[in-house]
Structure to design on (484 residues):
C-alpha cells in the first residue's frame, strides 16, 4: 500500500477519498467481481503493517507466508467462477487470546510457552469459513485482564490518535490496527467491554452481540464474555454478525437465528424508539465532563431523528454490591488460564489467581446466583425503553503506563482502574444484552456512545447505529497520531 492512487479508489492507502479507507464489505464485493485480487490486497496491507506497526505495536504475530498462500488460493477460486463466501479474500487479524490452527498462542503472558494450536476456536473457524484471510495476531494484555493493551511480554500498544495514550483493552491491538488502516477489520472479544472500550477510544464501531449469538468454546465467565469484530462501519459489523449467527452453535442457550439478515437491518430505518439516557456506573467511577457532553450531543441527535429520549435508571445497580461479586468472577477467570510458569505471570494476575485459590465453592456459587437474581431486577429498565444510551467510556483514554502506577502499594489498584473504564459497558455483559459503541465525537482522541438493546434485539441496535452513522458520518476521519 505504498503507491499513489486516485482519491476514492477502494485501495487508497491514505484514505484520501471522500469515504476514507475501504470497508470489508466493499473489498469483498471488489474481490468477488474480479476488480481486485486478494493477493494484491494482502500485499498492500502487509506492507502497511510492516511500515506502521513498529510505531503502534498492534501485532504480536504476522503470518506473511500463510496470508499470501491463502490469498492466492482465494484468487484461484474467483478465476474458476466458484461460489464464494461473503468475505472471500478479505484480510483480517485475530486477537491473540483465541486459538488459530497452526499459530502460536501465549495470551500475552511470559507464563505460557508459545504453543502451536491444533484447532481454530469456534468463532475463528466461522471467520475462516466466511472467506477471510488471516494475516496475523493482535495484541492484548495478559489473559485479557485489563482495559489497556500493555503486557510484559509484548510491551505497550499505542493509540494511533495519540501515541502517548492507550487504545484501550483488551482488544486494543485489533482496534489500533483497524484505526490506523492496517486492516479493514479485526477480530475481538468482550468480557466487560473489551470490544466497545477500544472502539470508543479509537473512533471505531464495536459491538458486543447477545449472549450465545456468537459460537464459543465454553460458557466463559458465566456468559459475560463473547466475541465479535472491530470495524469502521456499522454495515461491516452487521455483515460479520450474520456470519456468526448462521454458524454452527455448540451451546444450547443461543438466541433464535435472525429472520431478517443483520446487514439488512443495519440499512433500514429503526422506526421511532424510546431511548433512555443513563449515567449509572456499575463500578465506582466519575463520569468525565467530555463523556457527559457527548451523551447529551447524542441525545439531541436522536431526538432530531424523531426518537423519544428520556432519563432512565437501571434498578438495583449498585457499584459496591456489583464490584464485590464481579471480583470473584474475575479472579476465577484468571485462574482458569493454564500456565507453564506461575512465577512468570504479571503481578495483577498473580493476585487474582491467589484470591481464587483461597475461595471456597460456596463463595463462588453464591456470587453467581446473586448476579443472576439481580440481573432480573436490572433488566426491568428495558420494560420502559427500547434502547439505553450511555457514554461508552466514562473517562478519556488512559496514558501509557498510568494503569500500573501505585501497584506496588496496592496490588488491586490496576483492576480498580480497569473497572472504572468498564463501569458503563459491563452491564450489557452481565445481562447478556446486545450493545454497540459508535464514534460520534470529533476530537483529537475519540470517544464513543453506547447503545444497549433489549433481549435479543441485536437488529434494533444495528438499525439505530446505522441511522446515526448516516446522520453523522465518521468513516472519513483518520488518526492524527501517526504519519499515515
Amino acid at each position: 500500500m505504498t503507491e499513489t492512487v486516485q482519491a476514492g479508489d477502494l485501495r487508497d492507502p491514505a484514505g484520501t477519498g471522500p469515504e476514507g479507507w475501504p470497508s470489508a464489505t466493499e473489498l469483498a464485493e471488489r474481490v468477488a467481481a474480479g476488480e481486485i485480487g486478494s493477493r494484491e490486497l494482502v500485499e498492500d496491507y502487509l506492507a502497511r503493517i510492516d511500515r506502521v506497526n513498529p510505531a503502534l505495536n498492534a501485532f504480536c504475530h504476522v503470518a506473511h507466508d500463510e496470508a499470501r498462500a491463502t490469498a492466492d488460493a482465494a484468487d484461484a477460486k474467483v478465476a474458476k467462477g466458484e461460489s464464494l463466501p461473503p468475505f472471500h479474500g478479505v484480510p483480517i487479524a485475530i486477537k491473540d487470546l483465541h486459538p488459530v490452527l497452526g499459530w502460536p498462542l501465549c495470551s500475552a503472558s511470559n507464563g505460557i510457552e508459545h504453543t502451536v494450536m491444533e484447532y481454530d476456536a469456534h468463532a475463528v473457524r466461522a471467520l475462516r469459513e466466511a472467506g477471510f484471510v488471516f494475516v496475523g495476531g493482535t495484541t492484548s494484555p495478559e489473559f485479557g485482564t485489563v482495559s489497556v493493551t500493555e503486557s510484559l511480554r509484548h510491551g505497550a500498544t499505542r493509540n494511533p490518535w495519540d501515541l502517548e495514550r492507550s487504545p484501550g483493552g483488551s482488544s486494543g491491538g485489533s482496534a489500533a490496527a483497524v484505526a490506523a488502516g492496517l486492516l479493514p477489520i479485526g477480530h475481538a472479544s468482550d468480557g466487560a467491554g473489551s470490544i466497545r472500550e477500544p472502539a470508543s477510544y479509537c473512533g471505531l464501531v464495536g459491538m458486543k452481540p447477545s449472549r450465545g449469538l456468537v459460537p464459543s468454546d465454553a460458557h466463559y465467565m458465566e456468559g459475560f464474555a463473547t466475541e465479535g469484530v472491530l470495524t469502521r462501519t456499522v454495515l461491516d459489523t452487521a455483515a460479520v454478525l450474520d456470519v456468526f449467527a448462521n454458524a454452527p452453535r455448540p451451546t444450547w442457550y443461543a438466541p433464535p437465528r435472525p429472520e431478517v439478515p443483520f446487514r439488512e437491518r443495519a440499512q433500514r430505518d429503526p422506526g421511532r424508539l424510546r431511548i433512555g439516557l443513563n449515567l449509572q456506573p456499575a463500578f465506582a467511577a466519575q463520569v468525565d465532563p467530555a463523556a457527559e457532553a457527548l451523551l447529551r450531543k447524542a441525545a439531541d441527535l436522536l431526538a432530531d431523528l424523531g426518537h423519544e429520549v428520556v432519563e432512565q435508571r437501571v434498578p438495583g445497580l449498585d457499584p459496591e454490591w456489583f464490584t464485590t461479586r464481579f471480583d470473584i468472577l474475575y479472579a476465577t477467570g484468571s485462574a482458569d488460564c493454564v500456565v507453564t510458569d506461575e512465577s512468570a505471570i504479571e503481578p495483577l494476575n498473580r493476585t487474582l489467581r491467589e484470591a481464587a485459590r483461597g475461595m471456597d465453592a460456596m463463595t463462588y456459587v453464591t456470587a453467581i446466583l446473586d448476579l443472576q437474581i439481580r440481573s432480573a431486577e436490572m433488566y426491568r429498565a428495558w420494560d420502559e425503553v427500547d434502547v439505553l444510551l450511555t457514554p461508552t467510556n466514562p473517562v478519556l483514554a488512559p496514558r501509557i503506563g498510568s494503569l500500573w502506577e501505585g501497584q506496588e502499594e496496592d496490588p488491586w489498584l490496576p483492576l480498580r482502574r480497569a473497572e472504572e473504564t468498564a463501569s458503563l459497558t459491563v452491564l450489557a455483559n452481565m445481562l447478556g444484552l446486545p450493545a454497540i459503541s459508535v464514534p460520534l465525537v470529533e476530537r483529537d482522541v475519540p470517544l464513543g456512545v453506547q447503545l444497549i438493546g433489549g433481549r435479543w434485539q441485536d437488529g434494533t441496535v444495528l438499525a439505530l447505529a446505522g441511522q446515526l452513522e448516516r446522520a453523522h458520518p465518521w468513516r472519513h476521519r483518520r488518526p492524527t497520531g501517526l504519519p499515515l
Observations:
- Residues 38-56 form the longest helix (19 residues).
